[in-house]
Amino acid sequence: MAIPPLRMDTTAFASLSEAELNEICAIIYNRSGMVFGETKRYYIERRVADLLNHRQALSVRKYISMLHEDLAETEFLINSFTVNETYFYREAHQLACLSNSILPEIIRSKGPGDRIRIWSMPCSSGEEPYSIAIWLLEKWALVDAYNIEIVGSDIDTSILRQATLGIYGQRSLSKLSSEVIERYFEKENDQQRQIIGDLRESVTFVKGNIVDRQTLSTLGRFDVIFCRNLLIYFDDDAREAAVRNIHEMLYPGGYICLGHTESMSRISETFQAVRFPDAIVYREAEAR
Asked: Do 144 and 186 belong to one domain?
C-alpha cells in the first residue's frame, strides 16, 4: 500500500485539546521513542491536519481511535514526524575516523576476506550508508581485502523507499567533489543524480526501531554502528532502551559513532569514550 505524499500546508492545523495532544504524543512515543509535547503543539497540529486531510476530514477523535486499531495508520503518523535532514559526507571527520582508526583496530582480530559489518541508523534517505560505501572505496586502501556489509535502517518506511532508489538532488550532493559524483552517480535529469547500480546493491535497507528489540532481531551484530543525532529526540527511558539494544547489536569490542552534540557518558557506563585523531567515538567499557 503506497503512503500518500504529505502536503505541508503552512496554514493548515488541527486544533487539539490537551487530552488529544497527549494521546497522540503517547502513541508516537510508544511506537518510536520520540518525545513530543505541548512545546511542539504547532508542529504536531500541522502534521495531524495534513493527515486528516488525506483521511477525508475525519474528526480528531475518530483519527485517534484509528491509530489505536490500525498499525499502518500509525506508521503514516510516525513517518510524518521523523526528521530526514541529511546529505552526503555529513560529519566527514567521523568517516575519516572510520578509515584511519576504527577499521585498522577492527582488522587486528580479522583475516583477509573476513566480514566487517557497519550499521547506519537512522539512515534516512540513504545518504549516510552510501557515504560510508563511497568513502571506503575512495579512502581505505584495504577496502577490497574484506567482505564489507553495510546496512541502513530507519523507522520511516517511506524514506526507506527513497533510499533504495538512491536518487538525489544538488543539496544532498553539495559536499561531494565533481570527480566523486561522476564516478558513483548517473545523471537522472538536470537536477538529480542516481547512485550507480553496484553501490545501490551494496547497501541493504530495512525497517528498524532502535527502541524495539523485536524489529532488530533479524539484523545480527555489527562491528561499527553509526547512530547520529537520534538519541537527542528521546527521553531518559527511551535512550536507555536504545543503548541496551545498541550494546546487544555490537560485536564485542565494536564501536559506535554518535552525533557531535551527543555523549554516551551521560546515558550509560557500558561504553567508554575513545579519542582518535579525527573524532571521539565509543566502545564497550569491558569486553564481554
From this structure: yes
* Count: domains in the chain: 2
Q: Are residues 124 and 261 in the same domain?
A: yes
Residue 201 CA neighbour count, 13 Å, CB half: 3
| Interatomic CA distance for residues 121 and 223, integer angstroms | 14
Q: Is 206 helix (H, G, I), strand (E, B) or coil?
A: strand
Q: Is residue 87 part of a domain?
A: no
Q: Given this model, what pLDDT does residue 73 score? A: 79
Question: Pick from 58, 77, 66: which is nearest to 6 by CA?
Answer: 77
- Report phi then psi at 269, rounded to 5: -90, 5
Asked if the model's pLDDT at residue 132 lies above 60, the reply is yes
Q: Rounded to an integer, what distance in angstroms lies between the CA atom of residue 183 and that of residue 275? A: 33
Stated pTM of the model:
0.78
> Is 11 contained in some domain?
no
Helix, strand or coil for residue 264?
A: helix
Instruction: Extract the C-alpha cell encoding 112.
Output: 583477509
Q: Which domain holds residue 277?
A: 92-284
Calculate the average pLDDT of the chain.
Answer: 86
Among 152, 147, 158, 151, which residue's Cα sits nearest to residue 4? 158
Final residue belonging to a domain, choices 34, 49, 81: 81
Terminal Cα-to-Cα distance of the chain (whole angstroms): 43
Indicate the residue type of 141: A
19 Cβ neighbours under 8 A, 6+ residues apart: none
Average pLDDT over residues 252-258: 93
